[in-house]
Each structure stands twice: as structure tokens, then as C-alpha cells.
Design goal:
Layout (H helix, E strand, L loop, with lengths): L1 E4 L22 H5 L22 E10 L10 H12 L2 E6 L29 H7 L4 E3 L9 H14 L3 E3 L1 E2 L2 H5 L2 E5 L2 E10 L19 E2 L4 E8 H14 L4 H4 L3 E2 L9 H4 L1 E7 L3 E6 L1 H17 L2 E8 L12 H13 L3 E5 L4 E7 L2 E7 L1 E4 L9 H6 L27 E9 L10 E10 L2 E2 L6 E2 L2 E2 L6 E2 L4 E2 L2 H17 L5 E3 L2 E5 L2
Parallel strand pairs: 1-7, 2-3, 2-18, 3-4, 4-5, 8-14, 10-12, 14-15, 15-17
Antiparallel strand pairs: 2-19, 6-9, 7-8, 10-13, 11-12, 16-17, 19-20, 20-25, 20-27, 21-22, 23-24, 26-27
Helix pairs in contact: 9-10
């Protein structure tokens, strides 16, 4: 347990396509002018939970941050900082590791596919605290990029900056435990969960003299590919002729086409085929992981006034779209039923819409806060091999040699700062969500053009990359992003109004 002091009852609907059912900018940019860039890298964090009425949460998405940002002085960046500082809770998801050279060992992933390497300076945690971030979720598919040393250094730097955290730890009990913090408005808690990690990254339990395995708090997922029975018969026949399936396996309705694999192996994680009536893809959570994580949510509900569930999912049912996977919808709703006040989802670096479920917000995909993998200076040799570089020339390569991380295009570069406003500051279980505000955010792209154009870049020539830091989007760009937010919310069955440069969901 980390402490930093400073039953589904939903109606039956198509879970992915339809999931449920005032403001202006208030001079945000102008007000941010008073937030001058820091003149020193160690500045007291803002005080939260003061005497102002009501209760608010300001949240941003995946912070794939590649460099320090505490001296940033752009008014549209400082406008976001002001919103984070003014809220009673400032939250984001950390999509990298924090660590310095003397804390790290080696990159933990090899070159089978894109290896992981996300890392930034440990003192970047101080910049997040300066910006108003109170809590960061650490459970993700990159938690183990630098092994157990990277997990430990990330936790250490969060603690030194006074930032609450959850989702990783020295064993499963620690990784699954809620992170707690407190301010004048009450006691808060956060549970952080990750889906899509490799088995060696899952935190494990101790047994006898064997210590528990350090790692990430998992919500393992089984993806089932349903195919019509005649197609299943053809697949099984081919597998038997190839010698990768015996008669006993072919007789089962669930089967695998991978040599040596067992359907649903790795503790109910992976994929399987199933005989059925149609072509379809289904996903479901590991029952024990689901039970254990919901128990953590229940624990948090009993001893905290406000509970966040943060879920990082790097799996998908087929190609990624604007619709969350079945198991994500199920887990999000179950988390609310277990006592969570809000569910923040991320992992696809794009917005997946908001559902208001039993009066509480489910943000299925938050999108990006920072998109700066190209600016991470410590790149292991495996990453160059993954992208086809001539390894005999390894000493000549550096971070500017090419794009060394997948993604990062225009769909990763727009999102929002989400502000949740409640009707009372008495967090006693009776406070009600009044509205969800969307302040449009861009990371260097202008979406008023089709296709979007890069307009804030770093570097020249082959090494010209989008700057990747968040700014409040204004003018035509802000309106274009608000229209994108509105369209995806409509997919969730949630109407969003546009008032000036802010999107508004009014909660009845």
C-alpha cells in the first residue's frame, strides 16, 4: 500500500458501439499568464483542496514525456497547468519510466518485435508535481522496459516528488494495492491496472522461501475468435495435416492454431478460436485478476472519499478503432459498481469517448498528454535491431537516426484536459457529478486541415519531429478537436455540447 500524505446492473446494449446513455474558456489562456516559467527546477508544489466551494478533478492522458518541461512558458501550456493546479485532484497516466543512469541496469526487452525503452530523467517527476499532478498511474505495457530497476526508480522519484502512485511494485500485493493521498477536501485513492503485458512482467505472489516477482498489476485478457463451424472444420483439418493439432484437440470447440500452444494458456491469457455461428471477436478478463482488482477498489472505497480506477490496455479486438474492447467495458462498469468514482482508460493514445454510468464517468480512452518518444536519449541496442538497422554500424546511431518507436502520428496528437465538477465539497458519498468539461489539447498538429498538418516541430530534415508537448488548442484547431471529441462521445451515446472553446457533458 502506498500512502503519500500532503455486480453489473446496466441495461443490455451493444457494449462497444453504444455504451450508455456551462462553460467557456473563462479566460484560461489569459489567466495562465500569471504562471511564469520557473526560474529554478525545485519549486513548491501547488496547494490543493483549499476553501473554494465544490470539488473538481482535472485529468490528462498518457504522458509519454521525453524531456523536462518545468520551465515551459507558452501561455497555452500554462493554461493547462493552471487548470491542473486549480483542481482538487490533478491526475495523469505516466507512459514512461523515471530514472537516472546510476539507478538503471539494462533494458529488459529484447529485439523480437519493437523492444521497449521508454525512460526520462528522474527529476521529471518534480515537473509533474509543479504542474499540479497529485497522482500518476504506473501500470502499463512499458512498466518493465528497464526491468525491476526501472520499476523501483520510477516509484522512488514519484515518492520524492510527493506524487501518489499505484500499479507496480515488488510483488503482486504491493502492485495491486491502492495508492492514497490526502488534502483539505478529503482522502483520495487510486487503483492502477494494466492489460497486454508479457507474462514475465506480471507481478507475482511470494510462496514460502521464494519472494514475489516485481512487476505490474495485471488484468489478463483472453481474446476469442469466433468462426462459423464449417470454417472451423477447415482450420482444424489444415492444422491436423500440418501436424500441429491432434484428434483430441480437434474435437474441442475451442482450439489453437499455434504449434505447441494451449488454448487460453498463460493463466487465461492469450487467444483462442471457437466454433460458432458467425465471425466475431470477444474478450474477457481473467476471473482471479478481476476479483482481485475489484477487491482493491472496494478497499479504497471503504477508507477514502474519492476513488480513481486507471486501466492501461494495449490489447485490442482486431485493429484498434474508436470502440473499446468488450472486457474493458465490463471492467469499467464493474469498477463503478465496486465503488469507483471515475474510470480513466488509456493505452491506445486516442480518445474513445465518455459514458455516464450510474451517474459516474467512464473515460474509455483519454488520448495523449505528451507524445515525445523521439526525444528519449537513452535508446538500447535492441531498439535499433528491431527497426532493421545494420548492427555493425551501431556506434554511429543516435536518437536522431530515425523514428524508433511506433505510432506518434496525428491520431496520437489530440485529446483533452477532462475536468469533472461535483456539486459539493463534502466527499461523503453523496456528492454528485454535475458536468464533464473538455478543454481541447493538441501536441503539435493542426486539425483544422485535412489531413492534419504539423505546425510545432523540433529538429530539421529526417529528424524533424512533432514537438509532442500539450497545449490548449484554440481557434479553428480547438474547434476541430472539439468536433472530434463530440463525434466519439456520440458513439458512446453521450451528447456533448460545444460552448465557446469548451465541450460540456451535463449530467442529469
Amino acid at each position: 500500500m502506498t500512502d503519500n500524505s500532503e455486480g453489473r446492473n446496466a441495461p443490455k446494449l451493444d457494449r462497444r458501439s453504444l455504451l450508455g446513455k456551462g462553460a467557456t474558456t473563462v479566460g484560461a489562456v489569459a489567466a495562465a499568464a500569471s504562471l511564469l516559467p520557473r526560474t529554478a527546477m525545485a519549486q513548491p508544489r501547488p496547494v490543493k483542496g483549499g476553501a473554494k466551494p465544490g470539488f473538481s478533478v482535472a485529468a490528462m492522458g498518457e504522458a509519454m514525456v521525453g524531456r523536462r518541461f518545468g520551465n515551459e512558458g507558452d501561455p497555452n501550456f500554462l493554461a493547462l497547468v493552471k487548470l491542473l493546479r486549480d483542481a482538487d485532484i490533478g491526475y495523469c497516466h505516466l507512459e514512461t519510466n523515471l530514472g537516472d543512469d546510476d539507478e538503471l541496469e539494462w533494458a529488459a526487452r529484447g529485439s523480437a518485435g519493437a523492444s521497449g525503452y521508454l525512460i526520462t530523467d528522474g527529476d521529471t517527476a518534480k515537473d509533474f508535481a509543479w504542474a499540479g499532478i497529485d497522482a500518476m498511474s504506473l501500470g502499463m505495457n512499458h512498466s518493465f522496459d528497464w526491468g525491476t530497476a526501472g520499476i523501483a526508480s520510477t516509484i522512488r522519484h514519484c515518492q520524492a516528488a510527493g506524487i501518489a502512485h499505484a500499479g507496480t511494485g515488488k510483488n503482486l500485493e504491493v502492485a495491486r494495492a491502492p495508492g492514497y493521498w490526502q488534502n483539505a477536501k478529503g482522502r483520495m485513492a487510486m487503483v492502477s491496472v494494466a492489460s497486454g503485458n508479457s507474462p514475465y512482467e506480471w507481478a507475482g505472489r511470494p510462496k514460502g522461501a521464494i519472494p514475489g516477482r516485481p512487476g505490474v498489476n495485471p488484468l489478463r485478457v483472453l481474446t476469442t475468435y469466433e468462426v462459423p463451424r464449417d470454417v472451423a472444420g477447415q482450420m482444424k483439418d489444415a492444422a491436423q495435416k500440418l501436424g500441429i493439432m491432434n484428434a483430441a484437440a480437434a474435437a474441442k470447440p475451442d482450439f489453437s492454431m499455434t504449434p505447441g500452444a494451449v488454448s487460453g494458456s498463460n493463466g487465461f491469457s492469450g487467444s483462442t478460436y471457437r466454433e460458432g455461428d458467425k465471425f466475431a471477436i470477444h474478450s474477457s478478463s481473467h476471473p482471479a485478476d478481476l476479483k482481485g482488482n475489484l477487491a482493491s477498489v472496494t478497499e479504497a472505497r471503504r477508507i477514502a472519499e474519492y476513488v480513481i480506477v486507471a486501466h492501461h490496455n494495449s490489447t485490442s479486438e482486431g485493429t484498434r478503432s474508436q470502440d473499446p474492447s468488450d472486457f474493458v467495458v465490463d471492467f469499467a462498469r464493474a469498477s463503478i459498481d465496486a465503488g469507483a468514482d471515475v474510470y480513466f482508460g488509456h493505452g491506445w493514445h486516442t480518445f474513445l469517448g465518455v459514458e455516464i454510468y450510474k451517474g459516474k464517468p467512464i473515460v474509455y480512452g483519454m488520448g495523449s498528454m505528451f507524445v515525445q518518444s523521439n526525444f528519449m536519449q537513452r535508446v538500447p541496442a535492441d531498439q535499433y535491431e528491431s527497426y532493421g538497422f545494420d548492427m555493425d554500424m551501431l556506434p554511429t546511431y543516435n536518437m536522431a537516426s530515425d523514428n524508433l518507436h511506433p505510432g506518434g502520428g496525428p491520431e496520437w496528437g489530440w485529446s483533452a484536459l477532462y475536468q469533472l465538477n461535483y456539486d459539493t465539497d463534502a466527499l461523503d458519498g453523496n456528492s454528485k457529478l454535475k458536468e464533464v468539461l473538455f478543454y481541447p489539447v493538441e501536441c503539435g498538429w493542426d486539425y483544422s486541415f485535412n489531413p492534419p498538418r504539423k505546425y510545432r516541430t523540433v529538429g530539421v530534415g529526417q529528424a524533424e519531429y512533432v514537438a509532442g508537448d500539450p497545449r490548449l488548442a484554440t481557434g479553428a484547431n480547438g474547434q476541430a478537436i472539439l468536433q472530434k471529441l463530440k463525434a466519439v462521445n456520440a458513439r458512446r451515446g453521450t451528447p456533448m455540447e460545444i460552448r465557446g472553446n469548451v465541450g460540456v457533458i451535463t449530467v442529469a
